[in-house]
Amino acid sequence: MKVINVNKLTSAGCRVKIWIADSFAKMNKKMGGDLKKIRMVGEYFQEVWKAAGMNIDNVEFLWASEEINARAAEYLDLVMDIACQNTVSRILRCVEIMGLSETDEMSQAQILYPSMQCADVFFLEADICQLGMDQRKVNMLAREYCDDIKRKNKPIILSHHMLPGLQQGQEKMSKSDPLSVIFIEDEEVTVT
């Protein structure tokens, strides 16, 4: 869906920024929290999108860790403002973006994660946010934040549906669970 939507956006004249959320993956303990492994997966995703037909002429791949470090004070101010505008219960309603529920035990970083992801929208100066339905709650948080700060031009949310996982009852495929997902290099016999 990302390839299809990005190609539609770029053919309509949009410039697309793809935020490779390496620092977020570390916070959410993906790949054991190993930033080198996470970086490798991010590079792999770029190649998968290209192989799947993404036209990257008007696409810029940005690493969250590099962009945030380059403008750390600006980013931290934005995250703190979003955090100050919201209650803990409102933020906890967004933790499913990490595959968690409000009642799961989580680290302090994971509680901050929704405010950070919301900040990304404004940090990237995004007019359109194109993410999966699993990210919808944090996109709505960004729109609500616009109301809080009296910002008139709210980001447009372009959500795509998720492919269901291969295991019984899974709402979406998860690259974290190899038994629930089809990988790009899987042979036809494996997929069948």
Automatic annotation (TrEMBL):
Sequence intervals crossing the membrane: none
Protein known as: tyrosine--tRNA ligase
Keyword Nucleotide-binding: yes
Alphabetical list of Gene3D superfamilies matching this protein: HUPs
Enzyme Commission number(s): 6.1.1.1
Major enzyme class: ligase
Source organism per UniProt: Arabis nemorensis
Reactions catalysed according to its record: tRNA(Tyr) + L-tyrosine + ATP = L-tyrosyl-tRNA(Tyr) + AMP + diphosphate + H(+)
InterPro entries: aa-tRNA-synth_Ic (IPR002305), Rossmann-like_a/b/a_fold (IPR014729), Tyr-tRNA-ligase_arc/euk-type (IPR023617), Tyr-tRNA_synthase (IPR050489)
Family: Belongs to the class-I aminoacyl-tRNA synthetase family.
